[in-house]
Amino acid sequence: MTLDVRTYIVMTVLSATCSSLNTDILVEIGIMTAITLLMLISSKGSFMPKLLICYALMLLTQFVLFPVMPQTAVSLLSLPVVNIRSFFPTIMCIVLLYRNTKVSQMTATFTRMHVPKGVTITLAVAVRYIPALKEEWLHIREAMKMRNVSAGVRDPFRRMYRRLECQLVPLFVSAINTSDELSAAAVTRGIDAPATPACRNYRPLGMRDYTALFITAAVTAFCVWREYGGAA
Amino acid sequence: MNRANNNKLQGKDFITCGIFSLLAMVGMVLAAVMNISGYTAIFYPAVASFFIGILYVIVNCKVPKRFAILIFGIVPCAYFFASGLIEGIVGSVGIILLSFVAEAILGKERPDAAKITVSGLVYTLYMSVIGMTENFIFTDKYCDDALAHGIDGTIVEQMRQMYGMKWLWAVVIAATALCTFVGIAIGKAIMKKHLRKAGLV
């Protein structure tokens, strides 16, 4: 089962709102359970057990290990563990959005919503470039390891600059080449054509979208009520 | 094609800006490592601005057209917006406003090295001024929220003391400006040494 891109976007923004407002761990676990269930019934590859294990480890660290750990360790780990843990629902929603949305569907939906062309193309390209960026970064790291680029440079600033240069320049070259290739392909397909593009992949909001939106809105309203409504 | 049309953003410009916009967001996410402790968190804007400064120069040279910076800010804007609540919305609006200011500074004739530096310094102010508003102005609320979320009390008190020193905000802004300046300088050096020679820009 997949939902519409708009549903995923609204869910992401509202889950971030809930994460910021909610301070009750039980509510957070409830939200995480709901998102995990949604991941399980979503398309193949949406469910990521590693994310859940990570979340469980953070819960364990905060509620089991922190009380018995020395103060110095707690001071060091408290901020990153709590911050990342409380934004896990948002991270899960972003994963859902990314894994279940095709770029063509996103573009069609945004076009139908009359989102400016520049914004639509920029976001579509950004989403499509993420896997390529990851792959490119791994290649650069492997190449750097193999050549041992910073060997022999003693000055730490020069060494840092050398490493930065060796990592960033191939990345920028790759990004510029990719943008040129994508541009050529897009121009051939008529990206600059003055006519309004056909929205073949547009899918109107269905019952499942409205249900998901209703549940998300209800949870957000509950979190707002708990924060500002005077609940003890 | 006339000059007016040449100066208008086209499909390929949106694609280039989109890719560099994503790289800017990746830079911001990587810089978030600074949030590992309360003391280093204040340097998050500076580290993020360093990466953004490098990318800012390349975008300006690759797409020397009006509103390219506005498009460059879209993905970071979406990143802020997805982070939720008022801070996220304020951050997104801040990026858009400062993009317009940077566009106004850059003017019609691009790329101009001095204008790129000044506009880049203004553009990255969203990290240090808008991004740090809650920490330095609404310090008590920020620290109370952190405590309620479960952050260790000692850390929260340290943060309360640190954000209570308002002059530190000026230091954060200055450090961010300095890092942006260094980033822009490195960006220009990379352009001169590699990208121009390779005929990519």
Molecular structure report:
The complex is a heterodimer of chains A (232) and B (201). With 232 residues, chain A is mainly alpha-helical. Chain A folds into two domains: 132 residues, no CATH class; 96 residues, no CATH class. Chain A has nine helices and no strands. The model of chain A has no long low-confidence stretch (mean pLDDT 87). Chain B is mainly α. Chain B starts with a helix and ends in a 6-residue tail after the last helix. The longest helix of chain B is centred in the last third of the chain and has 29 residues. Chain B has one domain. The mean pLDDT of chain B is 88. The chains are: A mainly alpha (232), B mainly alpha (201). At the A-B interface, helix 1, helix 4, helix 7 and helix 8 of A face helix 2, helix 4, helix 6, helix 7 and helix 11 of B.
Domain count of chain B: 1
Averaged pLDDT of chain B: 88
Shape of chain B: elongated
| Helix count from the secondary structure assignment of chain A | 9
Low-confidence stretches of chain B: none
What does the radius of gyration of chain B come to?
Answer: 18 Å
Which structural category fits the helices and strands of chain B? mainly alpha
Largest interface in this structure: A-B, 59 and 52 residues
Quaternary status: heterodimer
What order do the helices and strands of chain A follow?
HHHHHHHHH
SSE succession of chain B:
HHHHHHHHHHHHH
